[in-house]
Request: fold
Amino acid sequence: MSVYRKLSRGETEIDFVGHRRRWFTISAIALLISIVALFVFQLNLGIEFVGGVGLQGPNPAGAEVPEIRSALADVGVVDATIQLLDDGASVRVAAPELDTATEVAAVDALGSVTGADHNEISISAVGPTFGSLIAKRALIALAVFLGAVILFISWRLEFKMAGAGIAALLHDIVITVGVYAITGFSVTPATVVAVLVVLGYSLYDTVVVFDKVEELVEIEDRKTYSEIVNDAMNSVLARSLATSLTSLLPVGSILIVGAFVLGAPTLLDFALALFVGIAAGTYSSIFIASPLLATWKEKEPGWVDRAERIERRSKSGRR
Amino acid sequence: MSRRLVGLLIVLAIAWGGLAAIVATGTTPRLGLDLQGGTSVVLTAPDGTDPELLDVATEIMTRRIEGFGNVQEPDIAISGDNTVVVQLPGVEDEQRAIDAVGATGLLSFRPVLDSTPGETGPLAGSDTPGIDSQTGLTIEDDITMEAYLLQTDAQLGSEVLHVGPAALEGGDVAEAIPIFSTQSGQWAVSLNLTTEGGQKFADLTAAAASYPVGDPRRQIAIVLDGEVVSAPAVNPDVSPTTGISGGQALITMSGSQDAQQEAQDLALTLRYGSLPVAFEVSAVQKVSATLGTDSLRAGIIAGALGLALVAIVLLLAYRSMGLVAIAGLTVFASLLVTLFGLLGAAQGLTLTLAGVTGIIVSVGITADSYIVYYERIKEKIRDGLSVEDATEEGFSLAFRTILTADTVSLLAAILLWFLAVGAVKGFAIALGMATVLDIFVARTYTRRAMALIAPTRLGKGGWFSIEGAAK
Reply:
């Protein structure tokens, strides 16, 4: 039987739980790299978070936003927010913190493209728009949400599933953040929103897998917990891969076609987080959440007894 | 025609008809600051203002705009030493929004010391410092001092009130709610005072009640940013020893046309407290989009391409069921865009670039629900069930899973909506709508459509059938 047919019929026999050391090692390395990168390179926070410098001046030449953007990019000012005021009569630019030389070059570049005199361009500090209030409120919301999720999954499925699900979730978020630290892409409010999408997606995926485990636990009474988890994983593997594919296709397309081919760099910040997060979410629900759950459950007295019973029976059967 | 088919046609008509209707009437979703631009308001504080006060002021402004409801995802930033730049995406009632953001919102309850009918105060022409010599009114009201303030009332005519220092101020208000009093037939703002505020209010009203009925000193002036909102006299039955206890006060709006809106705006201003600094609006300008339509087009083209690939995958993996899913995703997307359009018109909800791509991504993620369902059907057919039974039984099993997973998403949406502000709140709305629609479409469309195709050649047939996908 071909791999596709096996997969499609849920008849693969991959030992997800048995090889857990391998998966945990891979994830541990990825997490370590992410955390180290976070400390070494740090996140490139956008002006929305840390503020920057604002340039404002008249625009007698009637320059358009794309012209101004490329003129500023030529002198090394990227990730700037450019706005025309009063139908193009003047221009306002908010750029990340600049060193003195770049700032002078930026004023020159802006002046030459808009036709404004140097002394007509004002320079001022710009504070963050995604201020501490928004960040604080978002963090509180997140904490309350995680608490509520633990309660809900504990009630609907069981507490240890909630624990394993949250562990997988944190795994996905740390890796997503790590990728931002390594690539140096700027973190914007859109990135924050993308991370929230990842959070929801990661949980959705994990809940679907655990729902299957719960269903099998109720009907199987001659298998160890690890075997049940393996069965559940193999029967939903096709589904997991298919759902990841259908989620990753539009995201990947926005990332590659939108950001690189059609040239809308702002899409990058958003789509990268989604892409990495969803990929990590699929991986973690199969290779982290489930083995973690099995490891944890196997320690319960009831399941230890059953594992021993099955062990004895298979030995006596062999004799 | 079977009931199933009728139900299915109704759902399709709502979804596709709704989309056609909002496109035809131009109620398409409103675009955010980054895609369409909006209004920029520059608020300037007096020179030498403590930077920390500016921080506090921007926080209060953020909360007020949020409470204002008609504006989504504003940009508020401190600029330079003493200015705050507020950017609002396309607002209907621009002036009202600017007022709501920039109004100081300094509320005070003052004892009335005397009143003079007419529009000129008793000190007119006296050259008293701080008093306008023409009108005899206080130029700059300081709530810790006495003042001469004008009260205009459509029925009673104007009078100049001589008021004492504030006995009670905005900080003594715990909660402010706009209400319509059926008793007086007028809009009012109901105030719940803090314990301390309640005591101050009782003392103030007790003092006022000690004067005979008809004496102007029985009045209490409610002053907002130097303007008298109302100056009611305490009722004759109020005891001069205890005053009005209970920690509740009512500010009745004058019976103007916009009384309801005034009450709502005032309640909002009081709820989030007064700004610690008096700002002046120094510039109101139209601002262009920061990204423009080329980014939007790039996002939409790329997203559409990605969704086309999703459609191909669904067709190859699930055959005729894939066809049902693709039609279902257009139902989902049409409903989502319609809702965004309607909420844009009703609530001022705006879509940023992240929001637009978010919708595209949510369509891809919603394909999940179909896949969960279809895998169940395949499983049941392999267990030996007929195609009809498998689609029916598979649905109840899959729906349970979808409900559990969607509940988690809905939980996130509701909590983020209540707790977060700004861009995160915008995301919460989108997530919540997408989740509810996912469940709605599964129940009303998918189940019926699958039951309809199950007995046909699309159910049991060759390669392009449900059976064909399961084998």
Summary: Residues 3-30+290-470 of chain B form a domain with the Multidrug efflux transporter AcrB transmembrane fold fold (CATH 1.20.1640.10).
